[in-house]
Write a structure and sequence with these properties.
The two termini are 29 Å apart. The radius of gyration is 18 Å and the shape is globular. α8 packs across α10. The protein has a two-stranded antiparallel sheet with strand order 1-2. It is mainly α. Helices cover 42% and strands 1% of the residues.
Length: 279
């Protein structure tokens, strides 16, 4: 699949406020909620924790439901790590998908990625705390980089930061080992990637990759952790950045009519990931 071109596009997402005001982690009415979520995440997300959660959920044996049913569960979820929105995640899913649909009308699979990208957050409705599901991801098992949100004030009680196996630049990894060989902090990205693989979604490789790493902001937005990346990661990076534009810049106060849009996206689900899925 060819690399996306950066030609100007009149259908590019236009944020409802200045881009510099988005992902503001220094002030705002939601800051206390956001900080406390990251404090818990950065205290408890360790190599051992990630391995336990990977084993617990990797078999996708929790329940069976369709992709649309999972999306409707997100009507009940407001992401406590997000400083920009305070409405249910299902609305954000449609906002992202519709933004991609306007800019990429010929890529229905990419539109579906926009709809599905946060579906792994159903883990919260299954009983997981938000700090183990939402927010930016980061590699465990190596030194925390400076672009990780609140890196200087939230890791003091994380035991891995004092473990010589895990607190060096590469930690337990080899240089340029590839992100597929890196343990990321556990959350909705990795869980949804596992669900897609287990259920054999008929989507291109780029779709799996975008969903698996779309919350890895320290890498795709700030350029950190490149010492762990291989050539395949660099090839995929433009796709992750393309999804991120719509993930971030379609967050609007004007909310989509989900009932009106449901038929279109149900058809895409029927095409690429039909029926009852294992979660």
């Amino acid at each position: 699949m060819k690399v996306l071109q950066a030609d100007p596009n009149p259908n590019e997402p236009q944020p409802s406020k200045d881009k510099a005001e988005l992902r503001n982690y220094t002030e705002g009415k939601l800051l206390d909620r956001v900080y406390n979520t990251y404090l818990q995440m950065h205290t408890h997300q360790t190599v051992d924790f990630v391995r336990r959660k990977s084993a617990e959920y990797g078999g996708c044996s929790l329940r069976r439901m369709s992709a649309m049913q999972a999306l409707q569960l997100l009507d009940q979820l407001v992401d406590e790590s997000d400083p920009d929105v305070d409405f249910p995640n299902s609305l954000h899913a449609y906002q992202t998908a519709e933004g991609i649909r306007r800019a990429h009308p010929d890529k229905d699979w990419f539109q579906l990625v926009g709809l599905l990208h946060d579906l792994g957050k159903v883990l919260v409705l299954f009983g997981e705390p938000q700090w183990a599901v939402v927010g930016d991801t980061f590699p465990v098992g190596c030194k925390v980089q400076k672009s990780v949100v609140f890196h200087d004030s939230t890791f003091h009680d994380n035991p891995d930061t004092r473990d010589p196996r895990y607190n060096t630049e590469c930690g337990m990894y080899q240089p340029h080992c590839g992100l597929e060989n890196v343990l990321m902090s556990w959350g909705h990205d990795e869980y949804m990637y596992r669900v897609m693989k287990f259920n054999n979604f008929a989507l291109p490789k780029e779709a799996f990759y975008m969903i698996r790493f779309h919350s890895f902001y320290p890498w795709h937005a700030h350029g950190d952790y490149k010492h762990l990346c291989n050539e395949e990661d660099l090839r995929m990076l433009p796709w992750v950045k393309e999804l991120n534009k719509f993930d971030l810049y379609t967050k609007q106060e004007e909310l989509p009519d989900m009932k009106e849009l449901q038929g279109y996206y149900q058809a895409l689900i029927d095409k690429y990931c039909p029926g009852e899925l294992c979660w």
